[in-house]
Amino acid sequence: MLGLLWARLCGLDNPVRLRRAEATRRVLSLDLNKDRDVERLHENGINTLDIDPVEGRYMLSGGADGIIVLYDLANLTKSPSYTCKAICKVGKSHPDMHKFSVETVQWYPHDTGIFTSSSFDKTLKTWDTNSLQLAEVFHFEGTVYSHHMSPLATKHSLIAVGTKGPKVQLCDLNSGSCSHILQGHRGEVLAVRWSPRYDYILATASADSKVKLWDVRKATGCLMTLDRHNGEKSKSSSETINTAHNGRVNGLCFTSDGLHLLTVGTDDRMRLWNSASGVNTLVNYGKVCNDSRKSVKFTVSEGCSPDFVFVPCDGTIALYTIYSGEKISVLRGHYDNVDCCVFQPQLQELYSGGKDCNVLAWVPAVREPVPDEDSAKSGSNRHLNPAFEDAWSSSEEEG
Amino acid sequence: MERKRKLVCETFNIKKKREELKGPASDLNPSHSPYPDFTEDPQEAVPYLCALFPRKLFNDTLPPLCLKHQLYSLIQDRTAVDRLLSSLQQKGELCLVQAGFDSDTFLVVMDQDLRRTAMANCDGGSRAQVVSKFLESSLFSPSKISYCREEVMQKHRFSDREITQLVRAGLFTVRDAGSWWLSVPGAGKFTTQFIKGRKALLSQISRSRYKEVLLTELATRKSPPALRLGMEYHIHDIIGAGLVDCVPTASGALLRLSDT
User: Which long-range contacts (CB under 8 A, 24 or more apart) does A82-91 make?
Assistant: First the structure.
């Protein structure tokens, strides 16, 4: 660390390197911390979490009891221990609360003034955060499993919605109506995700074990159906039998650069796909336990030098490197199945929610103090001849 | 912990002399070499497993088969295994064949062996012509594991009857309406033995104390009569398929029946 700081000070390294190294160290040391807690307001399992992408400060949680809670994650108390306070909630007393389990909540990507939530009561609701009033309701024919808004699109404000029916629907926030229907799946659509790289690229995963990539400007059908065998290079003829998993596919996540797509299925596998060509990269993560009937929200880290993926796996969260598929560690703490986790990229914190009604905060361990003799030595050194600091630092770097 | 430390070092680019010194030493440690003939070389893994296959059991009617997941027990890095198999498949050296009893299990068979057995199985029969037509045509390529109707019937002019012949000869099994898996003729005999053996071995482990047994002890034990494919073949199978957990101990790996 000292070596890195020194190299940064001298301008030998570019700024990114130090940041990456430290971020990686922090992610690898994620653990529960007695000083950090999240207020417990849900009386039922927590299905979904989302941290606002603008400041990384506010977190939404949606529970199986239909309640949505908004937390403030920033610790402004100047004391190390902090319980994330709930600022407000859409609770039992609210006239517009969801009747059944909330499956997905998401912030409006460009501003914390709006958030959206979808639920098993067959609706997708848009909320005004400040007044906590309902702004817009979309009704569907089937229960809504998941929805997503493009994190970077500025030219459209479409929300992709996966419901119990096989059709993916796109709702336009500008007009307040369903503008597109994407047909192609045969089972319920369990997960939808917009690409973080291209405005119009959408990935959907379904219970018919297929994962499809769409360009929503293309009217005729999907771009491609991912095939786990990738034997046939000549597509289109065999499109109907291409399956991404052997079982329901219930989780989707793009890597932070949008070049790869991760999918999880109930065949206990996780797969990594090249999102441009749709080729299976053949990274084998081993067994990733997953028997959820609903969608699983998992997440990837950002800005680390091997990037990591956090996957809920029964009552634990497994941490894998994305591109080599190595299992790095397992985060244990929940008493029941974990359903969702979300990563805070600026502070490298992880929040997870599960059926045990808890939101747990996984915080990087504080750096251990430097061993005594070392600090004493360096201290005296510095005291004796401050002019020779230079020489001391370089020797430290080597050792 | 070890892995974490290694990753941290990699990112910080710390040159740790101590670790370097430790490197070869830990390799010499009892780490794992319960399979004395196997030389850590991934290229060797497939022939090694095929050599374990008891050909005599089936009167040489079957090609040497191994399962894809058995390789995971020999080589720790699963991604490396998958990539290796995929590259060998593209080169045309081996075929992956759907095993039939579990849709995520694949048999690995050498391309040469598959051709030979397929021809031998229908030697002189009326199907020989169709089978050889299929094997000679450009349609058959080891990199494919399944074939679809358009390809077979329109591009390569196989008639409906010929496809039926191929299915009867055991080269095709039905996957879906209008698509077929590639298959090994006579693989059913193997599958029967294989499942019986796996069950026998697992029940043997579950009967031992704490449902766990040392790998070395298991290998030297007298194998139950149902285990016709050989003890080591089955051990690789259950480890690779994740039916048992491998716990490293001072006296070699300990196999514990996994609870899921």
Answer: A82/A35, A82/A36, A82/A37, A83/A36, A83/A37, A83/A38, A83/A39, A84/A36, A84/A37, A84/A38, A84/A39, A84/A59, A84/A359, A84/A361, A85/A39, A86/A39, A86/A41, A87/A58, A88/A132, A89/A41, A90/A127, A90/A132, A91/A41, A91/A67
Q: Which fold has domain A2-398?
A: Methylamine Dehydrogenase; Chain H (2.130.10)
Q: Look at A285 and B78 and tell me if their CB atoms are within 8 Å.
A: yes
Are the C-beta atoms of A351 and A328 separated by less than 8 Å? no
Nearest CA in chain B to A397: B14
Least CA distance to B16: which residue of chain A? A399
Q: Write out chain A residues lying below 8 Å of B142, CB-based.
A: none
Q: pLDDT per residue over B132-145, tens digit each?
A: 888 887 777 777 77
Q: How far apart are CA A101 and CA A45, in angstroms?
A: 9
Closest CB from B82, B179, B260 relative to A282 = B82
Q: Is the ipTM of this complex over 0.95?
A: no
Between the CA atoms of B118, B121, B126 and B131, what dihedral angle is there, to the nearest 10 degrees?
0
Cβ neighbors of A170 (< 8 A, separation 6 or more) are: A158, A159, A160, A161, A178, A179, A180, A181, A182, A216
Determine the longest span between alpha carbons in chain B, in angstroms: 69
Q: What is the DSSP letter of B242?
A: T
Q: Between B77, B104, B144, which is nearest A231 by CB?
A: B144
Per-residue model confidence as pLDDT tens digits over B169-219: 888 888 777 778 888 888 888 888 888 999 999 888 888 888 888 888 888
A306 at B interface, C-beta within 8 A? yes
Q: Which residue of B has its CA nearest to A291?
A: B260
Pick from B79, B86, B146: CB nearest A325 = B79
Query: Does A246 contact chain B (CB < 8 Å)?
Result: yes
- Single pTM value for the model: 0.81
**Interchain contact, A328 vs B11, CB within 8 Å:** no
